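User: what does the whole thing look like in 3D?
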Amino acid sequence: MDFSVFVQLLLPGLTTGCVYALVALGFVLCANVSGVVNFAQGEYVMLGGVVAAFLVPHGVSLPVAIALAVVAGALLGALQERLTLAPARHSPDFIQITITLGVAVVLRGGALIAFGKDPLSMPGFSGDGIFEVAGAAVPVQSLWVWGATALMLAAMFWFLRYTDPGRAVRACSINLQAARLMGVNAERLTLAVFAVAGASGALAGAVIAPIVLANWDAGIAYGLKGFIGAIIGNFRAPGIAVAAGLGIGVLESFAAGYVSSGFKDAIVYGALLAYLLVKGGVFVFGRASLLSR
Amino acid sequence: MKKWLWMIAAALFAHAAAAQQPVKIGVVASLSGGFAAAAKDTMDGFQAWEKAHGLPGRKIALEVLDDETNPVSASNAFRRIASDPDVQLIYLFIPSNSVMAVKSLASEFKVPIIAGGAADAIGIPADPWLFKVAPAVRDFMTVFSQYAQKKGYKRIASLNSTDAFGQAEITNLKELAPKYGLQIVAAETFGVEDTSFNAQLTRIRSAKPDIIYNGASGRAAILTWRALQQMGFKQPLVVTQAAVSKAFFDAIGSPSAADGLMTPMQSGVFGGAAAADAKLYAEMAKAMGRTPVYFNTFGFDVGLITEAAFKGSNGTRQGLRDALEAMRDLPAVNGPVTYTTKDHTGQNFRSIVMGKLHGGKPVPAD
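Assistant: Here's the predicted 3D structure for the full assembly of 659 residues, as structure tokens:
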């Protein structure tokens, strides 16, 4: 396979990876402030897609449809936190995580009822054309996905690094109890972070919908791949989670292109397993235990 | 003498009374859920058969249960209907996976079943009591292979889902290819929830096929079609019949955007003279008062099979089963129906024609 094939696999892999990166970031932010792994994160991508793709054919202009999708993501993110997690804040972790799974199922079912089972399409923001890079054909909409992701990430990192609430989020990720003792209102912060995570997921869903369509059941796949990114970022490091999300998109594409489409997921999840085993020190401990016998 | 006359009169009365008893048929249909549109069209087609033919001198009483397009509900509904000793025959207007769930129960209740679904495993191995109607996956792949051979194509690329249906497609195609002088140069797979097919299509492009078979349906069919256009594929494209839907046309812009797209279809889809039995098609169209759609033709064919089974039996469960299994080349809208002890598929590749879309309507391909 030549260079054009390499590029043909790399660029669409990056496009998909952008969505995984934003989902991974949402996972990390929510986990930082609340200590909860929010398994509904992928559903906000689905939600942003279906809301925008539903509104556009009904005469709503594209910018307004995207804005409404983002607002819907933010509102539902906030509602999720307020109605389902806040009342269970003192419950064991597994209860809270199970609640997020329940929210995911409800969001999925709600989308099915509200928007139907058929995939919804929407036009590309600058048309449905393609551009060529080194002989590879790439949808123009990919530029919007890359641009929106870059903007979102820049805004998020600026927020985390240079604003007081952002510093508070980072403080919570280091030591929640200490942050509270220093006057951080973790409850209000958690609400805001869930809203932001919902909004960023919805934005990702709206910008990728012209390429992949919007469907009520699309959230699971995004959620799982974003979850892997968050695991690699240890649910603490947003930068690593984002890089991992992008890497998963590219790895998935290369695995399908260079190895076999049938092994695509096995390779991605196998890589995660290998990472966890290495990181968990299994090989080191295994060797030590063997040597000590 | 008087006593004998009374006995003969009583016997005649009993026979007449039995003849007036309605034939009780149970129906498990997906009247809600994902398969609802197809099941409703099937019911409409069956009712058209009742209007055009029916069972001479007998009324039909249908007991219909909705399985909500759910295999567990389908099994439960089947148990409930099959437990009624008055039910002589059961129809399954439900998807393949639900039919497979019922297949495991068929011999337990010993009631003849006429079922929908395209999965090969419904008809082979044959359950003594379960009879499929539409052709199997291997029949569709046979027609695709025959078409490729006829047009002089040698190198085939195939894109199939990882589910049972997709794997049945590629397994059959691999078996058939050598027989028709074809070489499978790329066999790519995808998950039904995948949103990117770029890598698979890149591999297919590198393999330089003469013709491409795409087994995707629903969202995957739309996304692969778009990606094929964007990547500049020029090869003829054949898709599965399930790919062609209103949602597909809406998503790609218009029905005419898919002009030239090919798909193996049952002949009843083309209607009129192109139907396997134009006379039966005309009867159905007249009874419906409009142009029938594919699942109408399926429902009408179920009626024709029922008619032949009652005609060739005493109407008992065992009698109907035996009559069904003895059926050979029964004329039907979509093509002749044949059952043997080993094969309960019903229609086969003879009822399938390679179609080409033109303005959203199928026409027989060259």
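In plain terms: The longest helix of chain A spans residues 3-34. Residues 3-259 of chain A form a domain with the ABC transporter involved in vitamin B12 uptake, BtuC fold (CATH 1.10.3470).
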